[in-house]
Design a protein that fits this description.
6-stranded mixed sheet, binds zinc ion, 516 residues, 17 strands, disordered N terminus, elongated, alpha/beta, binds ligand BES, 8-stranded mixed sheet
Length: 516
């Protein structure tokens, strides 16, 4: 991929090697280079060497009409497996469980796992018996599972991935709908895989500068408007700059804007992502907890992945949306921020540093300031970040922690999360949790009692920057997503995704939330 022992050279901004590296990164991010399977829709399963057939309890009788050779008793019980060879074809009947187990998340996992296990014998094609209602999740699950981190190895030899055929008798009449659903699933997977690849690139390569350069090249391809805020204009944003003070790289702020197809709207949405290219913890360092902090930019990558999904999936945003990416590197250089320092945000509020490792909220706070200084019509503020260890302790990897000031929006987020299989848990909204007070500054970057409910307190710290509506006007809507756990950055691997890449959480939810 890149010569690691030459990383200093690679990062020098004027050499051709830097261009090479950007080229390689852009190459990795291009779906056609990711060795994903070619997929198609068919109503029959003739001559497909391997066919996977999911069986739901109570629905097995229907299957016997399609697979007439099926004489064995099949219950559909979760985990049940039956291999039947017929006409030189191998059929794997696999129990899904009860109807209530047919969730978006389970189906995506089922198809992802089945694709990986059926690929082991290297068939040319793998057929999936799949009714229309599952096609999107199936296509999505398969493309996420197929991404292989071996692509980063220096002498990686591509082996063609087995083709995928989604097959069901109903596609005789519903082929167009099935193709549409498949493309939508693939578009979400594209966004997720973009996020997952960026998160896996080592931090000595993906510096804030390199990441910003990569984004500029991507938006050109996607034809999305993008502003990279100049160093000069960024000067007054003291919080984001404090985070990068100990790093050789400056902070970066990029704003990608998408309008609805029918044109710009009066009100706008801001979708802001934390992009810590590395979080060493600063002077109060992380020590042995540093591993995987290359992926502390996952929030920003989720925002970028969402843009890709929206653009490539042909989705339409509900209102003008500014996708804001705040990049920084939290390091320990001699100018690094100290505990006790006080910095001024872009809106004039000051923050006393209590802990140098609570840096993400500083970046997000200033991103909000930039939005309110430049897009005064913004009425929805969203932030997404790998923000707190507290959220990991509270919820574990299965749910994203949500801090939201609006009940209706909170319910919508929970519902949408269920629909797309990215589960959200909305925590209590209560100002009593906001103990981010400081005697000598507008606020402190850590509460007085940092052992309790840190994920909620961090959300309320961020909310301090959100503009409050005047009396009688609609309150600005705010929702913060803490993906510290649900990103699954320790990359242990699952049966439905390979070790070396994280989950890609956020893209499914955000793309749905902004467009439906
Ligand atoms: N990036 C971390 C949070 C994190 C930890 C994400 C582990 C993913 C995995 C964040 O910047 C951080 O360090 N938070 C501290 C704050 C603390 C010092 C108040 C934390 O939660 O431990
Ligand atoms: Zn930190
Ligand atoms: Zn961090």
């Amino acid at each position: 991929m890149y010569s690691v022992n030459n990383s200093v050279n690679l990062l020098a901004s004027t050499t051709n090697k830097t261009d090479m590296t950007i080229k390689q990164i852009i190459g990795f991010l291009e779906p056609k280079n990711q060795n994903l399977p070619f997929a198609e829709i068919r109503h029959d399963f003739k001559n497909i060497p391997v066919v996977v057939v999911p069986v739901v309890e109570g629905k097995e009788k229907k299957l016997k009409k399609v697979f007439k050779f099926l004489k064995d008793k099949i219950s559909g019980e979760k985990g049940e497996k039956k291999e039947i060879i017929h006409n030189n074809q191998i059929f794997y009947f696999a129990g899904i469980g009860k109807e209530k187990d047919v969730t978006s998340r389970n189906m995506r996992r089922f198809f992802g796992s089945s694709y990986l296990s059926a690929s082991a014998s290297k068939p040319k094609q793998i057929g999936f018996y799949c009714p229309l209602e599952w096609v999107k999740e199936a296509a999505l699950g398969i493309d996420v599972s197929a991404l292989n981190p071996a692509m980063f190895k220096p002498k990686f030899k591509k082996e063609k991935a087995p083709d995928v055929i989604f097959t069901h008798p109903e596609f005789k009449t519903k082929k167009a709908q099935a193709v549409k659903a498949m493309k939508l699933g693939q578009a979400v997977a594209e966004g997720k895989n973009l996020m997952r690849i960026l998160g896996a690139i080592p931090p000595n390569v993906l510096s804030p500068k390199m990441y910003a350069d990569v984004i500029l090249q991507l938006v050109k391809k996607w034809k999305v408007k993008c502003v990279r805020v100049s160093k000069d204009k960024l000067k007054k944003y003291g919080l984001i700059n404090a985070v990068s003070a100990g790093s050789q790289y400056n902070s970066e702020l990029l704003i990608l804007t998408i309008h609805p197809k029918k044109g710009k709207t009066q009100k706008a949405t801001a979708m802001i992502g934390k992009g810590l290219c590395y979080d060493s913890g600063g002077l109060q360092g992380k020590q042995s907890h540093m591993k995987f902090m290359k992926e502390d930019m996952a929030g920003s990558a989720s925002v970028l992945g969402t843009v890709r999904t929206i653009v490539n999936g042909g989705l339409d945003v509900k209102q003008t949306t500014h996708f804001v990416i705040g990049l920084a590197e939290n390091m320990m250089g001699s100018e690094a921020m100290r505990a006790d320092d006080v910095y001024m945000a872009g809106d004039g509020q000051t923050v006393e540093i209590i802990h140098t490792d609570a840096e993400g909220r500083l970046v997000l706070g200033d991103c909000i300031c930039y939005v309110k200084n430049n897009f005064k019509n913004t009425d929805h503020f969203y932030t997404i970040a790998t923000l707190t260890g507290s959220c990991i302790v509270a919820l574990g990897e299965h749910y994203t922690g949500v801090v939201c000031n609006d009940n209706e929006l909170g319910c919508k987020i929970t519902e949408t999360g269920k629909e797309v299989g990215e589960y959200m848990h909305v925590g209590p909204w209560d100002m009593d949790y906001d103990d981010n007070n400081s005697p000598n500054a507008s606020m402190a970057n850590l509460g007085e009692n940092d052992r309790e409910a840190g994920w909620l307190k961090a959300g309320l710290f961020i909310y301090r920057f959100v503009p409050k509506a005047k009396k009688g006007k609609d309150q600005t809507k705010f929702s913060h997503f803490d993906i510290a756990a649900s990103i699954d950055m320790n990359e242990k691997g699952k049966t439905w995704r390979r070790k070396g890449f994280s989950s890609g959480i956020g893209v499914g939810l955000l793309s749905e939330l902004l467009t439906k």
